[in-house]
Specification:
The chain is an alpha+beta fold. The chain has three helices and four strands, in the order H-E-E-H-E-E-H. Helix 1 crosses helix 3.
């Protein structure tokens, strides 16, 4: 994925998650971004799942996970 696309992916995910003000905790693992959000209703999971660079999404309890794959660290840094 091109560097420009990673930045666009990061910006779109953050906007569709409800913005930085909706994020309580943000981390990542080997392939996923992991968000704990304040208001689950603000998260546009279907739109995030259709974002270029996103493989999929899932809720695990109150944590929203965005599956990115091997570029996860780069997208994480751009969101930070």
């Amino acid at each position: 994925m091109a560097k420009k696309n990673l930045e666009e992916t990061a910006e779109k995910i953050l906007r569709l998650i409800g913005g930085p003000e909706n994020v309580s905790i943000f981390t990542h693992c080997v392939t996923r971004l992991r968000f704990t959000v304040k208001d689950m209703g603000l998260v546009q999971s279907d739109a995030i799942g259709r974002t270029p660079g996103v493989i999929g999404t899932q809720w695990l309890g109150e944590q929203f996970q965005v599956i990115i794959g091997s570029d996860v660290d780069q997208v994480y840094r751009k969101i930070c």
